Records
---
Amino acid sequence: MLWKMAFRNIFRQKRRSLFTALSMIIGFVMLSVTMALSEGGYGNIIKMFTKDHTGHVQIHHKEYLERPGLYRSLVYTKKIEKIITENREIKHAVPRVFSGGLAFIDEKTTGARIVGIQPAQEAKATTILNKVEKGEYLSDHWNPDKKAEVLLSHGMASILKAKVGSELVLISQGADGSIANDLFTVTGIFAKDFDTMDRMNIYMHINKAQEFLVLNNKIHEIALFLDDYLDSTKVAKQLKKNLAGVESTLAVDTWMDVEQTFYRSMEADKSGSWIMNLIIILIVGIGVLNTVLMVILERTREYGILLALGSRPYMLIGMIVVETFILSIISSIIGALLSLLAIWPLKVYGITYPEPVSIGGITIESINGAYVPIAFWMPIVVVISTAVIVSLIPAFKAAHTDPVKAMRTF
Amino acid sequence: MRQLFIILFLSMMSISLVSEERPDIRQLIHDMDILYRSKTSSGLMEMKIETPNYKRTMRMQMWTEGLEKTFVVIESPKKDSGTASLRNDKEMWNFFPKSNKVMKIPPSMMMGSWMGSDFTNDDLVKQSTMLDDYTHSYLEPPKGDNDHYYIQLVPKKDTATVWGKIVIQLTKKSRMPVTQVYFNEKGKKVRIMTFSQIKMMGGKLFPTVMEIRPLTKKNRKTVITYISLEFDKKLPKNTFSLRNLRKKR
C-alpha cells in the first residue's frame, strides 16, 4: 500500500517528479565526473609512474634500499625465478644493476648513475623504448669483444655534449676493489621530456655492467610489474612469504616503499583534492535538499487532506520517504548511465594542463578520468542518503501539522 | 757514607736519563720522509688489500725522485696491468690503459683511496711531506717504554690533510718507525700504520712491510711488502713525464 501510493504520487505529477529527479541526476553526474577525474587521475599517474621504471614490487638485498651500495647485491637464482614465475599476477620481472661512476667524453666529464638492464625485457616491461629520441635502443645481445653500447639520458648527453656514435669513457669502482674503466659507444639518447627521473643515467646491457663492475652474476634489483597496481601489497606479501624460505638476505618492497617521496606527495595531493570532493558532495547534497524540501512543502495541503481522511502520521512519513527513495534510485540509475557517457571523453582525451605539472619526478601533461568504482558508489550514497534524510524533516512536519491548518495553505 | 754514595749515584743516573740527548727532530722526520725514497728509488712491491667484500693482491713497480716525483705502474693482476699513477710536484694523474684515459686527481681527492686500498693517494705519492707540512714535537713516552721515541706531528694551517695529528713511534736504536697512529680532527684514532720486517735492501736498512689498518672500518687492512728496492740509481730522464704515463706497457 505504501509503495503503491508512493509510486502513484511520483507519476501523478510528472513534471514535478521530473524536476526533482533532474536535480538529483545533475548532482549525481557532477559528483561522478569529479570523482572519476581525481581518483582515476591518480590511478593513471600511478600507472604511468610505475611503468616508467619502478614497477610495482621490487626485490633487493635487505639493506639496499636504506643505503644502496655495490656490495648490497643478490644473485638471481633459478629458485627465485621460479617463485616469481609461479606468481600469476606478475607480468614482467626485470633484473637491474646500479652503480655510480665518472663519465668522460673528450674534455667533458660528469658524475653518472650506471644502470645495467636486460634490454629486451626492460623494453617490454617499461616505457624505456619510447624514450629514445636519437639513435637506437640497446641491442639485446652483448658481445664481449666489441665496444659496449650505452644509452644516455638527455641531461647526461647535453652535459657531455654527446652525439650518437660518440666514444664515452666510464670510470668506476669494481666490486673486487679495482678501478673499473672502459670505453663505450653512445648508441642512443633520450628525449628531453622523459628526463625528470633519470637525468643522470647511463644505461648498458646488464651483462656488460656486471663485467665492468666485476659483479659476476650479482644484481641489485628485480623489478616486478603486475597487471593491476592495486595488487602490489598483496603480491609483495606473498613473495615475502615464499622467498623467506629460500633467501634470508632479500627484502620485498612495494612501489610505495621504494618511491616514498612520490607516494607521499601523491597522498598529500590526494588529501588536498578530497577537500574539493567534499565541497562538491556538499553542493550536490544541498541541491538535492533544496528540491526535495520544496516539493514536499508544496504539498502541505495534500497531506492535510490525507490526515483529515484518517491517514496515520507514520503512514504519511513512510509515504514521503519511500517516494523520495524511489525517485533517488531512479535518478541514480539514470545518473550512472549518463556518467558512463560523460566520463568517456575525459578518459580518452583528458584535460590537458596549460603547463605540464611534475609530481614526484613524473611529468604530467594531462589529467585523465577513469571508470573507478568510487566514481559510482560515492554519488549513489550521497544522492540517496541526502534525499532520504532531507525528506524526513518535512515528512515529520507534515505528519504532525493540524489538518485544518494544513488544508488552508496553498 | 755508603748510603749517601748510592743516593748520589742514583740521582746522577736519573739526571742522565732526563737529559738524555734526543736526536734533532727535523733530521729524524726528514729521514722518515725519505726512508723509502732516498734521492731516487726504484723497486717492486706487493700490495695486499683485505676487506669484508674482497681480497686482492697487486704487484707494482715504483720509481721516485726526491720527494716531488713518484711514478707507480701496476703489473699484476692482468686486468689492471698498466694502470699507473704519476705525481710531479703538486699534480697527480692516474692512467687507465683500457680506456686510454689520463685522469687528473684534484687536490680534494688526495685523501681518497688509492686503487681501492686503505692507502690514500697522498700516502702513496707524498704530496705532503712530514717535514714541511707539519709541526713536530717529542711526546713523553708511556711509562716503561724506554726503547722508543714518540713524536707528534700537527699539520700546519695550510696543509691539505684530513688528519688532526699523527703520532710516530720510532726505535731509539735504529731510528726505524714502528707505528704511526693517525688521529682525526676530533682527536679520535682513525688508522694505524705498522712497520715490520726490517731488512737490508738496496744497501739500506728499512722495514720492508707496512700495514695500514683503518680503525673506523671493520675487517679492513692493506699490507705493502717491498720485494726489491734500489736507491740512488740514475733514472731515465722522462720517467716522470705524462708521455711515459700514457705509454702502453
---
Amino acid sequence: MPEPTWTYAPAPESRDVVTLRSAYGLFVDGAFTDPTDGGSFKTVNPATEEVLAEVAQAGPADVDRAVAAARRAHTEVWGPMPGRERAKYLYRIARILAERAREFAVLETLDNGKPIRESRDVDVPMASAHFFHYAGWADKLEHAGFGAEPRPLGVAGQVIPWNFPLLMAAWKLAPALATGNTCVLKPAETTPLSALLLAEVLQQADLPPGVVNIIPGAGDTGATLVAHPDLDKVAFTGSTEVGKAIQRQLAGTRVRLTLELGGKAANVVFADAPIDQAVEGIVNGIFFNQGHVCCAGSRLLVQESVVDAVLDTLKRRLGTLRLGDPLDKNTDIGAINSAEQLARITALVEAGEGEGAQRWSVACELPEHGYWFPPTLFTDVSQSHRIAREEIFGPVLSVLTFRTPDEAIAKANNTPYGLSAGVWTEKGSRILWMAQRLRAGVVWANTFNRFDPASPFGGYQESGFGREGGRHGLAPYLRSPDLRSPDA
Amino acid sequence: MTTLHPAIETLPEPGGGEAALRGFLHGLPGVDQVGAEARAAGLATRSIKRESKLWALELAVRMTDLTTLEGADTPGKVRALCAKARRPDPSDPDVPPVAAVCVYPDLVPIAVAALAGSGVHVASVATAFPSGRASLAVKLADVADAVAAGASEIDMVIDRGAFLSGRYGQVGEEIAAVKAACRDARLKVILETGELATLDNVRRASWLAMTHGADFIKTSTGKVSPASTLPVILVMLEAVRDFHDATARAVGVKAAGGIRVAKDAIRYLVVVHETAGAAWLDPDRFRFGASSLLNDLLMQRRKQLTGVYAGPDHFTLD
C-alpha cells in the first residue's frame, strides 16, 4: 500500500519557452542600444540567486536620448495619429501578449520569484486585458467625458515597481498610448526582463520608433527621468518615501503627476461573515504574491466574538500553503524578490516581536538558496506597533480585533495610507455603511485583491492620487480643452 | 484543539424541536457562492503528476461505489458489475477492488451472493429513491428490506420538499428513523444538492444530516442535474471537517453523478486533501458514486505505468 499521505510530485513549468539573452540593452527609439554613459547591472532569480542576465543601465545621456525620441515620436507620429489607428497597435500588442503568455509567465516568475500559478493566471492575462481595454478607448476619447476634443499631454515618464513588473508596465503604457502620449518607462532594478521582452513585442507589433522607450536602471536612473525638463507627465508606482520626493521635486512645475504608493489595508471580518470564504480572502489578501502587493490586506480586523475560531481556521489553512520552487505549478508561495526586501521584512518582524506582539509562522522548510520568508501572522497587535502602521510588503499579517462597527471604522482608517480595504459580512446594508466610511480607494466586499481593467484603482492620503484602470484611468493622460491652462 | 465557531458550539439534539433546529441551521456561517466557486476553481488547477497521480488513481478506484440504478437492471447485469468490482482490470491483479456495488433493494441478494468474501460492500438505495416521495412507513420498510437482504450500506434520500419548505424537524426525524432501521449498516444521506439551489442550503442540509446520524453525506441521486460539483463538495467537506472538530466523529462524503473522467476524480481528491485533510483520503471517508469513471481510471492508470494509452476495448464494459 502506498503511504497514507499524499505528496504531490514536482510539476515544474518548463523554462524552455524562454530564451534568455546573456545581455540586454536599452530600448530607445525602436531599437535595442548600448548605454552611452550608463553601466550595467545583473538581475538574479530570487528563488536560486542564479544570475539571469546582464542588463544595461541608463545614464543621464541615455535618459536624454529616450525623452528626445519620445518627444519626436509624439510630435511627428503618435500625437497626430487618429485614435482608431492607435487602437490597432494596442490591439496587436494585446494579442501578441496573449499569444506569448506562457513565455512571459515563465520569464516573470524567473526574474521576480512569484509562483507560476500567479504569473500564468493573473499577471500576464491581466496585462493583455489592460491593452485590450484601452485599445477600445482609443477612438472614443471624445465620448469619455473629458470634453469634446481631449488632447494628449505629450511625453510621459513612468517609473514602475518590481512586484508586478509586466502588469505595472501595462497599467502605465496602455492608457498613455491610447490617449496619444508617448512614454519613457523605467522598470525596477530587480525585475527588468519582462519589460524588455515587452519591448520585443512592441517591435513585433510595428509600434513606431520612439513611442515607447524602456530604460532599465536603479533609483538614480528613475530620479534623472522624473526630473527631466522635457516631460509633460510623470506617473510613479512605488514607495511612499520616493513618491513624496518626486512630488516635492515637481511642485511648482507644469508637469502632471500621479502617484500610486504604499498601503496598510484593513481587512475587516465581522462575526456574521461567510467564514470559510473570509479565510480564503485573508490568505489571498496578504499571501498573494508573497505580500508584495501595495493593496495587500496586511491588517486583519476581526470582530472579537469570532477571533479565535477565525484564527484557528486561518492557521489550519495556512498549513496547506505550498512554499517552494516558483516554477512548480503547485506552488502557492514563491520567493521574496530581493535580499534587500527580505532584510526589511525580517527587521520589521523582529520589531514586532520586540514590541510584544505574538508571532506565529507556518512550519515549513525554506529552500537553502534564494530569499524566502514563511507565511507569518502576529496576534496581540496594538495600533501603535510598527507592524500595524508600517507597510511590510511581505507575507506578514497583523491581527487586531474590534467590537463594534464604529470601532472597526476608527481602526481601519487610523493609518496615513488609504489604498484598499476589505469587508466581510453577510449583511448587505453593513457593507454599504462600511464602504461609505472607509477612507480607501478600493473597498472589496466579501472578496479581496480582485482587479479588472475596467475598474479604477488608486489611493487616498499617502497612498497617492490619480486613478489607473477604466475610464478614470484616461484622465491623468488627457488635457481637456475646457480645462486648458493658459500656457498649454 | 481548534476553537469552534460560536454557531457550532452547541449542536441540536435529534427530536429537540423544530425551533431549536431552525435556529441552529440558520445560525451557521453563510457561504459566499462566488468565493466558494473561486476556491474550488483554484484547487482544480493543481497539477498532479507521476507517482502522486498513480497513487490518486488507485485510491479513486478503491473509493468507487460502482453503481447501476436503472429500471432495466437485471440479475445478470448486477452479477457482471460485481465481477468487475472484485477485479476491475482482469489483466492486472494489482488493481484493488472498488469500495462497494450500489443497486436497488430487490437486487441486493444477487450482489451479496456475487461479492461474498470479496470485502466489497453492497450498498442499496432505499427510502423511495430517487424522489423520496413516499410515507415514512414505506421508506422504513424499504430500508429494512434492503438491510435484511444483506446490504451493508444504505443510501437514503432526504425529503427535499420538506427541507425547502423549512420543515427541518421532519427531515431530521426521518433521517434518525432510517438510521435506526439501518441497524449495523452504514447510512449515506443523499442531499440531492441539485435541488437545494444554494450553497447555504447545502451547508444546512449537511449539518442536518450529520446531527441526525448520517455516516456519510452524499451529493446526488444521479437522476437530477446538476449532480455533484466541486463547489458543492467543497462546502460539504468543510461541514464534515467542522463537525469532526465539534464532535470528534468523522462523517464521510460521497460525490455522486457527473464524474466521468479520471482528471475530474483527481480534482475532487485535491479538494478533499486540502479541505478536510489527508485523513479523508480513505474509502471509509470519501466515495465516488459512478459507473463510467472506473474505466477511465483504469485507462489512465495503465498509461501511467506503461507510458502508452490502451484503447477502450482493452477495458471491460460493465
